[in-house]
Write a structure and sequence with these properties.
heterodimer; A: MetI-like fold; 2 domains; two-stranded antiparallel ribbon; extended; B: mainly alpha; 15 helices; ABC transporter permease (chain B); transmembrane (chain B); cell membrane (chain B); MetI-like_sf (chain B); membrane (chain B)
C-alpha cells in the first residue's frame, strides 16, 4: 500500500486517538506535578478608637489574577506523589521504624489510602486471574463433554456473566448476598450465625469481590479454551491412544500443550482487566473495606471538591502499574508480529 | 467416532455433570432470581424473616393485592425518568458504533494491507492505548471540557467513547481484513480502480461478518461503560448504567431499591437478546485474538 493512501486511510482514527488518548495522557502527567494556587493573603490593619489590630484577609483580586495567569497552578514537582494520599514517603519511613515485624508493617501500611488501594488491586489481580483460568478450563472440559444439542444453550448461559454490564452483574450478586437476600440467608444458615453479614466484614467482602471477579471473567477463559478444544488434533490423540497413552497422559501430553498458548493469552488479557477493577467496588458499596486504584481516581474526581491533581497523580501511578504488567504482552506482540 | 476407548469412566461422567449443573446454576440463576424478584415489593425481595417470601410474594399480595407488581418498573421508568436514560443510551450506542466502525474499517483495512514497518508500530501503540484503564484518562479530559464548556453533553461522551474504542476496533478489524485475500482488491486495482474505489466496491461487500462482530463489541463497550459516562455526563444526559448507580445513592428511602432492581432488569434484557441472536459472532470475537495473535 502506498504511503499516501495509508496516511489518508488511518488519519481519522489516528486523530481520534491522538486527541482523546494521547493528549489526555500528557495532560494528566502535567497536572500531576502542579497544585492549585493558594489564596493570596494580605495583612490588613484596622485602626479604631481603641488602637490598631492587624487581621489577615484574602486578596480576591490578586488570587484571581494569579490563577488566570497560571491556570495550571503552582509547579509542585513530585510533591503530590510523596504526600500522604499517594506514596506517603515520610509516613512509610516512620512506619518502618516503628513497626515490630514485616507483618505489623504491612498491616499498618494498609491504613494509608494509596497502599490500601494498591494492596487490594494486586491481591484481586493475582487471585482472580489464576482462578479464572482454572475455572474456565474446567467448564470448557465439562461443556465439551456434553451432548452436542445441549452445547448451544450451555454456551448461551455461560456467556451471560461476562457480557452483562459489570456494574449490573455486581449489583445482582450484591442483592443476593445481602443479609436479607437469598444467598445471604443461605450463608447465615450454613455458618449458623444469625448476625453474619458480608457487608460488615472486611475479609468476607474481599472474598465476595473476588468471587464476583471469577464469576465475571471465567466465561471468557471458558470460551477461549472451548474454541481451543475444538481444534485439538484428533490424529495426534488417536496416535497417542494406539501407543497406549492413558486418558490422563493424553490430556497431559496432547491437550495441555495445545492449550498452553491460549493460557498465556487469557492470562495477559485478564491481568490487564483485573488491574482496573472498579465497578464491583461501587456495586458492592465496598469502599469502606476495599478500594482499588481506579476507585481512588473515581473518588477524587467525583467528590464534593474535584481533586484533579490528586486524581492525576494516582492515574500516572496506575499507568505505571499497567506498563509493568503489560511489558510481557508487548514483548510477545513484538516477537509474533514484528518479524512477520 | 465414539470408540470404546474414548468412553469416559462413570465417575468422570458424574464429576463433569456436577460441574455443569453447578456452573449453570451460578451463571444463570442470579439473573432469573432478579427478574422474578423485580416484580415484588422490597419487603419480599429482601426478606429477613423468611426467604421464601420472595417466591410466594407474601408481602407483595398484602401491599398490592396481587402476587406480582410492576411498581418498581413504574417508579424507575416514569417517576425517575429512566426512559430518558434509555434514550440517551440508544443515542450514544448508535453513534459510537457507527463512527467507530467507519473510522475502524478505514484504519483496519490500511493496517492489514500495508507492508511497511510503521503499520506495525501503529498497531503496537494502539495496543498500549488499549491497555490504559479509561478512568486514568478522565482527569485529563475534565479541565479542558470545563474550559470549553462541552462537559456534560452527549456528543462529548460519544466522541470520547469512539476514541477509547478505536484501539480495540482497529485490532479486531485488522485481523479480519488480513483474512480477506489480498488478490481481491489488487485485481480490482489492476483493472484501474484507485485504492479507495477498490475498498469501496470490492472490500466493503465482503467485509460484513467481521464488521458485525466488531460492531457488537463496540456496542458492548459503549453500553456497559460506567467510568467515563459517569464522569463526563451531567444528570440530565446520563445513560442507563450511571443512572442506575445514581439510584443507589438514594437507596435509603423505601422503594428506591426496587427502582434500581427494575432498572437493572430493563438494562439486562437487551443484552440477553443480543447474546441470543449473535452468540456465534460473540464467541468468534472473544476468541479472535487468541487464535490468531
Amino acid at each position: 500500500m502506498k504511503h499516501s493512501a495509508f496516511f489518508w486511510f488511518v488519519l481519522p482514527s489516528a486523530i481520534a486517538m491522538l486527541l482523546f488518548i494521547f493528549f489526555p495522557i500528557v495532560s494528566v502527567v502535567i497536572q500531576s506535578v502542579h497544585v492549585a494556587h493558594e489564596q493570596v493573603i494580605v495583612e490588613v490593619e484596622n485602626c479604631g478608637p481603641f488602637g490598631c489590630t492587624t487581621a489577615t484577609a484574602i486578596d480576591q483580586e490578586a488570587t484571581a489574577a494569579l490563577r488566570a495567569e497560571q491556570p495550571l497552578g503552582r509547579f509542585a514537582g513530585l510533591e503530590i506523589y510523596k504526600d500522604r494520599n499517594h506514596l506517603a514517603v515520610t509516613q512509610v519511613g516512620q512506619l518502618w521504624d516503628q513497626s515490630t515485624g514485616i507483618g505489623d508493617f504491612i498491616g499498618k501500611l494498609m491504613n494509608l489510602p494509596f497502599y490500601k488501594a494498591l494492596g487490594f488491586t494486586l491481591t484481586y489481580t493475582f487471585v482472580v486471574t489464576p482462578l479464572t483460568i482454572l475455572f474456565g478450563f474446567v467448564i470448557a472440559v465439562a461443556v465439551n463433554s456434553a451432548a452436542r444439542v445441549l452445547r448451544g444453550p450451555l454456551i448461551f448461559f455461560s456467556l451471560l456473566p461476562n457480557i452483562v454490564t459489570p456494574l449490573i452483574g455486581g449489583l445482582i450478586l450484591f442483592w443476593m448476598v445481602d443479609a436479607r437476600g437469598v444467598i445471604g440467608t443461605a450463608l447465615r444458615w450454613l455458618a449458623d450465625d444469625p448476625s453474619l453479614s458480608v457487608k460488615a466484614d472486611t475479609g468476607l467482602m474481599w472474598i465476595m469481590l473476588m468471587v464476583y471477579g471469577v464469576w465475571h471473567s471465567a466465561p471468557f477463559a471458558f470460551i477461549v479454551y472451548y474454541a481451543g478444544l475444538q481444534t485439538v488434533n484428533t490424529d495426534t490423540l488417536e496416535a497417542a491412544r494406539i501407543d497406549g497413552a492413558s486418558r490422563w497422559q493424553q490430556i497431559r501430553h496432547v491437550v495441555i500443550p495445545h492449550l498452553l498458548p491460549l493460557t498465556t493469552f487469557i492470562a495477559l488479557i485478564q491481568l490487564m482487566d483485573n488491574f482496573r477493577v472498579f465497578e464491583p467496588i461501587i456495586s458492592f458499596n465496598a469502599s469502606a473495606h476495599a478500594t482499588s486504584l481506579s476507585w481512588a481516581i473515581y473518588n477524587d474526581l467525583g467528590g464534593e471538591t474535584q481533586q484533579l491533581t490528586s486524581a492525576a497523580a494516582t492515574s500516572v501511578l496506575t499507568v505505571i502499574g499497567v506498563a509493568i504488567l503489560l511489558s510481557p504482552v508487548l514483548v510477545r506482540t513484538y516477537r509474533s508480529y514484528g518479524k512477520a | 467416532m465414539a470408540s470404546k476407548a474414548q468412553q469416559r469412566p462413570l465417575a468422570l461422567q458424574i464429576v463433569l455433570l456436577i460441574t455443569l449443573v453447578v456452573w449453570m446454576a451460578a451463571a444463570a440463576f442470579p439473573f432469573f432470581w432478579t427478574l422474578w424478584g423485580s416484580f415484588k415489593v422490597e419487603a419480599d425481595f429482601f426478606s429477613l424473616a423468611d426467604w421464601t417470601n420472595a417466591l410466594t410474594g407474601r408481602m407483595t399480595s398484602m401491599e398490592t393485592g396481587e402476587a406480582f407488581t410492576a411498581q418498581g418498573y413504574y417508579g424507575a421508568w416514569i417517576q425517575e425518568e429512566f426512559w430518558r436514560a434509555t434514550l440517551n443510551s440508544v443515542l450514544v450506542c448508535l453513534f459510537v458504533v457507527t463512527i467507530s466502525l467507519t473510522l475502524g474499517t478505514l484504519g483496519g483495512y490500511a493496517l492489514a494491507r500495508s507492508t511497511y514497518r510503521y503499520a506495525f508500530w501503529f498497531l503496537l501503540i494502539a495496543l498500549i492505548f488499549r491497555a490504559m484503564p479509561p478512568i486514568t484518562l478522565v482527569s485529563g479530559y475534565l479541565p479542558v471540557f470545563f474550559e470549553w464548556n462541552v462537559w456534560g453533553y452527549l456528543p462529548t461522551a460519544i466522541i470520547v467513547l469512539v476514541a477509547i474504542n478505536q484501539p480495540f476496533t482497529l485490532w479486531m478489524l485488522h485481523s479480519f481484513f488480513k483474512n480477506i485475500p489480498q488478490d481481491l482488491d489488487e485485481s480490482a486495482m489492476v483493472d484501474g480502480c484507485t485504492r479507495f474505489q477498490a475498498f469501496r466496491h470490492v472490500i466493503i461487500p465482503v467485509m460484513w461478518p467481521g464488521v458485525i462482530t466488531t460492531g457488537l463489541f463496540s456496542f458492548l463497550l459503549a453500553y456497559n461503560d460506567f467510568a467515563v459516562t459517569a464522569m463526563i455526563l451531567d444528570k440530565q444526559n446520563q445513560t442507563m448504567v450511571p443512572k442506575i448507580a445514581s439510584f443507589l445513592g438514594t437507596t435509603q428511602t423505601k422503594g428506591n431499591v426496587m427502582f434500581a432492581v427494575a432498572a437493572v432488569v430493563s438494562t439486562t434484557a437487551p443484552l440477553f437478546l443480543l447474546i441470543m441472536f449473535f452468540q456465534r459472532q460473540i464467541v468468534s470475537g472473544l476468541t479472535a485474538g487468541a487464535v490468531k495473535g
